[in-house]
Batch of 2 targets.
Target 1
Amino acid sequence: MTSSSSIALRVAGASTLAVAALLATGCGSSVASTPAADAADAQRTSLQNCGREIVVDGAPEAVVGMHPSQTELLLRLGLADRLVGQAQATALALPDDVASLAADVPVLAGLTPPSREDLLAVAPDFVYSPTTYEFTAEQGFASIEQLEGAGAAVYVATGGCFDRRMSGEVADLFIDLENLGEIFAVQDAAAELIDDARSDLAEVAAAIEGVDRLRVAEVYVEGTTLSAIGAGVEHDILTLAGSDAVYSPDQPAFADFFAATITPESLAAERPDAVVFSVHDAEHEAAVRAYLTTTFPDMPAVKEDRLIAVASADMFPGTLGNISVVRQIAEHLYPERF
């Protein structure tokens, strides 16, 4: 293994934005609801998020989803009528069953987070983001401080908090859903999503119980640059899918960063039974698959046709895609169990 370095993973639909965004992930958050002093006032919700205290008086009425994954969660919680904007909207298509609910929601930005001016123009009172990257003032985005000064509460997906990037888990999503349920007083809808997700994970766990775990390497390929992924929610996804991960957080290469540039020779020496690789479109998948097939013809993963492409968006922290991709990988590794 070589030393840690950046990796060009696609985030927000644009691979050039990925490193900054994927570095931004954190602490779990707790939530407490207390009655306001005036009974006529709405319920007050306070919670810790990314090391900050968020206080929300009453359910927000003007909400912005800063990425389709967050917009999807808001829609599934029944909050379509509260959305005043959606961002990075062309980075990922919304699922067919909820896409129509967002048809009239203004698109504030396509592949990138919205500019400071465009976001503030819709006067949001709640902004829900996958990472802290979306609030990088140096990029021309509204900072958290600027949004709070304008009266908006800012919530970052738990797995998207900076301090959480190296130790994130799929279950971080449940923290977010519980918090959103409290903030918007949609606890039942949140609990249903959590129950469904836990049930899906339990089904996979039962299906693969007792398997002789295959050795799986997760990589990212851009051109001929090869990087290994060894920490964060990506590693947890592999574990839940029944993998014996080639790269893991206890290895020195991943002590400070979840990814590390590696040589083709080092990957070949590991002889993984399967390789999982994230892609941002069909063209990227075809290119990576061709690279792996021609570069590693003798690798067991290639010989056994276990090159597993997954959508980059599904590997991103704090998304429902984290749940579905666990099953996707497990089904490819152990098709006889499904």
Note: The mean pLDDT is 89.
Target 2
Amino acid sequence: MGSIQSHFCPFTCQLYDYHFVNENMNWTEAQQFCRKHYTDLATVTNRTDLETLKTIKGNSRGAWIGLYYEPGVSETFHWSQPGLEFNKTNANWNDGEPNGGKDETCVALCADLKWVDIKCTAITFFLCYKDNLSSTGQYFLGKGKNWFEAQEYCRNDYGYTDLVSKPHLQEIQRDCPGENCNKGYIFIGLFRATWTWSDGSSFFFRLWDEEYYDDSKKHHNCSMLTENGNWSVDDCGTRHPFICYQDHVILITESRTWEEALYYCRHHHHDLVTITNLDDQRWVQEKTKNATTPYVWTGLRYTCTLGFWFWVSDEVVRYKNWASPEQVNECDMSGAMETGGEHKWVKINDEEKLNFLCSK
């Protein structure tokens, strides 16, 4: 293989960015504008994104974002844990549940481990887990947070992985508080997808204002960023400024060797994609849903001479998401991502032909 020169960014390479448009349009007009001039209305994946939106919005009282509700469309349950499918035949609903519809879209446990759907903004107990539940201390029972805060806490604090999901529920009987169904709930990582991102993304970061649950707004089906930075809803025909996003990741569904993919990206776009943190990982794995190969190439490469993995953008490999511990004694290997399951990284001989992800 020829020499692979780095193709680094002078600043941190962002996988997407936001643009505030200070023109009053209804939601559909705003969506069309964003799709014409950028990628789509803003998709928000985490609290860092939200802080960025609040900054660029400035003093504007409100701005459309890309989340909307389409009445009559099938509403499905999903586990928060990436790659874990919800099987309704294994559900453990309490009598009469789920019954909350659009207003109760997060799931909690009763003390007897039955499931109930409740408001995501309820303040209650929650349960985090770590990947390995075979020893003590691998889960954490917290309290005093809504579902979104609880999910963020589990994913970002103290090394936990996420809110608990179905495979772990049988392990937690001893950690449940003693309240009955009418007094205490414990959030788990199950939610009903009633709202959809304009670009079709499956991200479930939400920060609804309590105003969202106002009965007078039950027919308001488009979301907006409020003056205080939370999210509310409004009639889709109302005119507001809006926020678009520009995507800098593209899936190429042609199958090429790793080197061919590298030079394709550098000729037509910028480079093979670099993943530096969990938020990048979640953004990139969303792009793999339309791949035609079981893995997709990334910009991850192994050097036999120096004996380590590196990103071709010159980023150091700090964040890692390997399916198994790296075997560093193999040459001619490059890093690819699974297009299904948990989207783990694997090492594959770079002469294999796969779809690939470019940064733009």
Note: Residues 1-12 have pLDDT under 50 and may be disordered.
